[in-house]
Design brief:
Length: about 110
C-alpha cells in the first residue's frame, strides 16, 4: 500500500513530515510488511467502538486509542485488539492506566 493512501485511510492529510514519520514507523515495526494490511483492517473494525489506529506522537510506532466512554463498548474494542494480536501474531503493549496500545511488530 502506498504511504499516501495509508495516511489518508488513517485520517491524515499527507505531507512530507507525515510521510517521513510513517517511514520511521515502518522501519521501527518488526515484520511491518506482514502486518500492514491487518493494521488497516483493525482500524476499520475499531471505528464502531469509538477507537482507532494512529501514528504515535512520542514513539516511532502505531498506537491504538480507545476513546469510548461506554465500558461495554471499550471492552469490545479491547477484545478486538486482543483477537488482532493473537490471530496475526502482533505484539501490542498496553500503556498502564490508559486506553492506549502501541503496535510493536510481528511475533517471530
Amino acid at each position: 500500500m502506498q504511504k499516501e493512501a495509508m495516511l489518508t485511510q488513517l485520517g491524515y492529510v499527507p505531507n512530507d513530515a507525515l510521510l517521513n514519520q510513517l517511514q520511521r514507523i515502518e522501519e521501527n515495526t518488526t515484520g511491518y510488511e506482514k502486518i500492514q494490511k491487518h493494521i488497516m483492517d483493525l482500524h476499520g473494525h475499531l471505528k464502531v467502538d469509538d477507537a482507532y489506529v494512529a501514528m504515535s506522537n512520542t514513539q516511532d510506532c502505531f498506537k491504538i486509542k480507545i476513546e469510548s466512554s461506554s465500558p461495554e463498548i471499550a471492552q469490545e474494542a479491547h477484545q478486538k485488539i486482543q483477537h488482532f494480536s493473537d490471530k496475526f501474531k502482533v505484539v501490542v503493549n498496553k500503556l498502564e492506566k490508559k486506553e492506549t496500545y502501541y503496535i510493536v511488530g510481528f511475533k517471530h
